Amino acid sequence: MAQFRVGSIVRCRNREWVVQPSTHPDILQLRPLGGIDGESCGIYLPIEGDTVTTAQFPPPDPAMAGDFVAGQLLRNAARLSLRNGAGPFRSLGRLGARPRPYQLVPLLMALRLDPVRLLIADDVGVGKTVEAALIVRELLDRGEIKRFTVLCPPHLCDQWSRELEQKFGIEATVVRSSTAAALDRTLPNADISVFEYYPFTVASIDYIKHDRHRANFLRACPELVIVDEVHTAARPSGPGSGQQQRYDLIRAVADDQERHLLLLSATPHSGIEDAFVSLLGLLRPEFETYSMTNLSSKQRDLLAQHFVQRRRGDVVRWLDEETPFPKREHMLRDATGNRDITYRLAQSSAYRSLFNEVFEFARELVHESLREANAPRVAARTRVRYWAALALLRCVMSSPAAAEKALMTRARKDPTTQADDLSLTFDDELFSSAIHDRSTPAADDDVEPTHVIEEGSTASEAARLQKFAEKARQLRGANDPKLQSIVPIVARLLKDDFQPIIYCRYIATAKYVAEELTRALKPGNDTRILAVTGDHSEEERESLIAELSASPRRLLVATDCLSEGINLQEAFNAVIHYDLPWNPNRLEQREGRVDRYGQPAPVVRMALVRGEDNPIDEAVMRVLLRKAVTIHRTLGISVPLPVSNETVVDALIATLFKPPATQLTMFEAIDPATFAAAEQTLAEVELQWAQAEHQAEQSRTRFAQHRIQPQEVARELEESDAVLGDADTVRSFVRASCERIGAPLVALGAHAPDHWRVPIIQLPLPVRERVEPLLRNKATELIITFTGIAAEGVLLVGRNHPLTMALADYALETALTPEDGLPVPAARSGVLRTKAVERRTFLALLRVRMLIATKRNEPLLAEELVVAGFVREPGGFRSLEPAAALDLLTNALPDANIAHADREHQLHSALDLLPQLAADLTSLAHTRAERLAESHSRVRTATRMAGKVSVEPHLPPDVLGLYVLLPV
Q: Domain 99-309: what homologous superfamily?
């Protein structure tokens, strides 16, 4: 049975193929000679091996000659068809979108590490997912990994899967509780793991962390693991069984020092240094001993090899390229410049009355606990009554619906089922999570905290709670000043063509707000208002958002189940915080869903809804949000909450329930030192915020990777663009090829520069069949653009867009094997009489195939298009520089006609001369191979792999095209 070298040309099944790398010795992996990946196949050698024979690339047919525009089209079609491009970055040929230059910095860092271990902590909206997936794609294409897993919160699994498939051509299998059973049934036997059978997986970290799944995952753990939102897996400083399990899982993954590990988080530093260094210790054990406030220069340099953290201001203009982040504006409520949407409880005497009664009830809960705080046996009761007071107030001020829902559950409970003395056995994490806003939302975070109110109040208080619930029921709609404050704002946003998201804390509030706004705004047929909450499954949320996005005008009311990791920028461009989050992280996470790269609107609008005479909102603003917002406006960065959840509760209690000086007699039984200590807590919070701001500013300065110069990235990007083509190449090729096949693009006009209509019906059938699935709503044409961020209803067309690929494949196929009745836009040969040359000049369009080999991996195939030029002189040929030859193919113009017979004669003569140029073509191929080896070694200069990359050309290079230029 014959052995065929990777890169060689063979004939099988009545056509020519290029041999590709194969993972099995009995499988011959083949790609059609035209370069169409979609028609690749595998030949099982024990059965079909005898039918495979060696072959040569066919020469151009002079009878199919065309003009030089057709030659340019052939070159660009071949470049845009390359998937194994011979550039310094092998992955760029397979990407669905060209990355921003700054997103290549983590890739350069990764290629200089062995193994790759990085913490990518760029700001929300900068593109951490793209940066991590780019590294994965590159390592796959270099043959350094064969399997990987993304570990992420369960609600991000589908988004990761989509991003990998749409932008990186990787089909990953989602593994979580809802898919695990079905996946197990697909396994060939019980001894193999899902993570062995499926090479690329996206798994819920909360599914994998459990003991019954953890061991199976670790046994079959792939060579590379990405951990998204890794701050949720830092080592906890206090009780938190879920976070501890996540940390133990990632710690076990990191213990294999040969495993590649990518950690992602916009807020890796939670404000608690021990938690932060526990994440750094996953990269290298010694990092866990570092003091971040006292790093030596050697420690800083070593850490900088593994840690990148950039704010938006660091990358908005990088490599002389502007990244079009949207401008964030705050909605102004009135002429005074007030940035928040404010309301007053006093506007509704009924709501004010309810608040006063509930606030007094909460005071009683807190102060009763304060009197007993020194008794050890009631420590649990004290904490829960604190939480019950806060939960009750928060629900009442969220909405009448949330208040009623939370209060009625307790009021309806049978008084005989609970004694007045609270149980001392409960899950601390379960109760506290209902009060604190965790940095990362959990599945049940938007559920009303009825269990806290139940435990925090006694059966004898049920009657009062029922009375509160009945009052809340009467406050819906017109009697709710908070709701009424946003009605005109939302109406104005919709009128101004903004598509807002309104974030609420509780499910009941979100549903109530959606219902009341529908009633108040009376939306027409072109406007949809929907609520999406934790009540919906992940699949239902995705379906609802897709349904809503199809409406010309839309309003999404959501809970924090949609506040993290989910990309909503294509359909929404404004955020209203209906309920203030009790964690500044949530504030930025919510706004980051729309304020990010990829937002087509130039401006996004934000607003906080705040009660001017609402002590709850004032306490939250004072303790949690005001400083965080100020830091973000000053530094352009988000700083996580720098204190523990327990400190937050203490600070809120101190702010809300400290007795006014005129009412001290009410609290004479309370030790004055209690509130003195609370005031001290507030002072500590202020100090911690100041320290966090200073640390964040230093961290962003130290680890923004300023040492990787833009010029360094520019060099590698220019080499890749020269091989694969850039946006200008795509635009030129798509426009020219559509023109030549009878479907010219139509410009939209000056109001929409670089926007074009594609008349689908005029495209040849092979192209039309691949493009028609892009049409929506029975449209007959596509609206496309080639640069920037596509607006709604417009497709951004890059080198791997279906339209580009269909046109490139068609141009190559028809040039190599023309079919009767189909237009042929590209030509493999041509003759031009031009003033651009003084002697007869030959241009050969070459496809150089090269094998890249390292000591650790199987040889990889790389390809490059090169234009070789030769001038016929007395006694032989003179070679042109590749740049000069390319300039002639691209820019030479016809200055005189040439007869058809003379054209064929010149091309036959040129073909006869090709053997005399074989040595020159071989030399050129070796030169390109040496340059490729140099570029691969250059980007890996800091690893032990440096200098061990060898590149060998596969000879002879393919002569895709042959063109003759004659002097006038």
A: Tandem AAA-ATPase domain (3.40.50.10810)
